Amino acid sequence: MKTVAYLCAGSSPPPISRYSSPQQSEIERVELAATPVEMALVLHAGSGNKNALKALIAAEYSGVKVELVKNFQMGVSNKTPEFLKMNPIGKIPVLETPEGPVFESNAIARYVTRSKADNPLYGSTLIEYAHIEQWIDFAATEVMLILEMALSTARIISLCGCE
Questions:
Q1: CB 14 within 8 A of CB 30
Q2: So what's the pLDDT on residue 61?
Q3: Start and end of every GST N-terminal domain (predicted)?
Q4: Of 2, 28, 36, 104, which has the fewest beta carbons less than 10 angstroms from its beta carbon?
Q5: Tens-digit pLDDT profile for residues 3-45
Q6: Residues in contact with 92: Cβ distance below 8 Å, sequence separation at least 6, in sequence order
Q7: What is the pLDDT of residue 55?
């Protein structure tokens, strides 16, 4: 039985009822009921932004076309009224989609990955899906936190000349 699910960026993991039974190992492929991603998705961020790279890497592995906005200037482009309609606090990255904007890098990566129903990047079993989500959360809460603290410390040391 095919299940139709509305997948929104940043939505909760699919409900357990989406799977036929606890014993079934294969996840039924999800048909995207939202507008198919026919036009290119547009990513607003600087080309070297580490969070934008998540979306671009997910797009590359998923075979989804994502265009990076040319000449994006942090502190300028993200302060325009048009940008603030997409993300009221002016953070990047922001992905323009046919259904509307999506912000926050993990939500964007999930949207891009799930925009193709036959994409294997989210696993084929419930446990594979859980493990993928587990490592996304681990990277966001543990790895990135420590990395950002280390980089901030290095910047402070560099600025004060305490090297």
A1: yes
A2: 92
A3: 39-120
A4: 2
A5: 323 333 444 444 433 333 344 344 443 444 334 445 689 999 9
A6: 44, 45, 46, 49, 51, 52, 72, 74, 78, 103
A7: 92
User: What is the Cα–Cα distance from 99 to 106, expressed in whole angstroms?
Assistant: 18
List the chain residues with pLDDT less than 50. Answer: 1-37
User: Which residue do the tokens 């961020």 mark?
Assistant: 45
- Give pLDDT, residue 163: 66
In this structure, whether the domain defined by 4-160 belongs to CATH 3.40.30.10 is answered with: yes
Q: How far is CA 20 from CA 7, 25, 132, 143, in A?
A: 19, 9, 21, 35
**Residue 130: both structure tokens together:** 């859980």
Closest by alpha carbon to 104, among 55, 36, 40? 55
Where do the domains of the chain lie?
4-160
Cβ burial, residue 42 (10 Å; 0-12/13-18/19+): middle
pLDDT in the model for residue 21:
38
| Placement of tokens 């603030």 in the chain | 84
